Amino acid sequence: MNMIPAVPHGTHSRAEKRVFDQLRLAFQEDQSFTAYHSLNLTRHAYKRFGEIDFLVISPFGLIVLEVKGGGIGCQNGIWHYTNRYGEVNTSSEGPFRQAESALHALVKNLKANLPEKVTSQFTIGYGIIFPDCEWPTSGSEWDPHVLLDASHFNGFARWLKKLIEYWRDKDSRIRESDLLALKTLKQYLRPEFEAVVPLHIAVSNTEEQVARLTEDQMTAVDIIAANIRVLCSGGAGTGKTFLALEIARRWAAEGYNVLLACRSPWLKRYLESRFIIPGLVVSLASSSESAARRAGLSHFDALIVDEGQDLMDMESLDHLDIVLKGGLATGRWSFFYDINNQSGFFGEPTQEALQFLESCTPFRYPLRTNCRNTRIILEKVQASLGADMGIRGAGEGPSIREHTAKSIEDAALILACELKEITDKGGLTHSCITILSHLPFKNSSAALLPEKIRNDIQVLDEFSMRSFPPNKISFSQIGFFKGLENEAIIVVDLPCPGA
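RESULT FIELD:
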């Protein structure tokens, strides 16, 4: 059975975690079954079905599962729920009524938003699970077929199968959904886009700005989390750093001590200052041994490498091999790298290093969908550089403006006009703009801008990554900016084509 999300993060209920584990094991050979843990759907733009603990869908039906941990009792029509700390909560609505109400709300929502030819194909039902206590009695309010208590919890998969059969027997029509209906329902339950915090937005930012991960990338998260070793390739903008952080969060939630390694001091400083995940250590690959000692560890349980093309050499891999439990050959790792030839700022990848990683029998996953760059940018990069940055892109996007300057002074005048155009007509603030050059600032055309504009420019360095983007226009050499992004990028000082 497929689990969405892949780990039960976001809940403190041990009962739900036990049910999660049982669902993961149920129907392992049948990938048409999917279970949604609704408490973790809060990462979506909005939570559709917050009252449902688990939702199981398959061609054979749609089942809502209500989970009640701890002790439970009912006196004079009032239900008493006792948690593991001995605290008692009361409710006039029992778990059976809660599950039934949640099911009806779900069906109402589906019928309002999906075609009748889709919703009519699914048998619907619910079940109640008490993992921690034995149900002592029968009653008119509930049907014993829908109930699973502690005494039969070890037979979870068998009970779930009988539960589905029970509701199908009660259905007046024998229904089994077709693949299109199942796909439509899955797509609605977890939309194509999942909201996550983009790299250039600090987590403390009060304005809720979100980027969108495509279904391609969320499928990648599920696949990568399910494999011990993964080589994940993709061009700039295909979401490699997003995925690296999501895998880090999931692995850390499972109790692993995770190392996120890179080679760029800028990227390392940026990530460690903004993404505070318990159980995660961000480090340069060359400093991974000292990072382990500072964390009080002899080895990390899992390794994630971002901008991995910069670490495709045997010396870097040796540093990572030493600190990973089981080493690179048998340990748990995910290696995210760009398939294109990059600037070579950190040295060229070696064939020996890639062959070694491939000898560790990783699962290989290519990212095809570009969620950050527009179609126009993708086509321009492909035509100019021959680089594969994925397909589709983030919409059509504005046109790319290109200028040829006769001199560096002429380039400075053109740059000044572009900055005015972007801020005055484009409505972007200075913090949204980054100027990139292969030259240091003092040698670039940006240094010849009028003093008023120069005063609004901050030359980036490793330490400024703690608060990137600044409140000013930022400037960086191209090589240092690898792995980072901003709303508007202006590239200057490029040689003339054919020069």
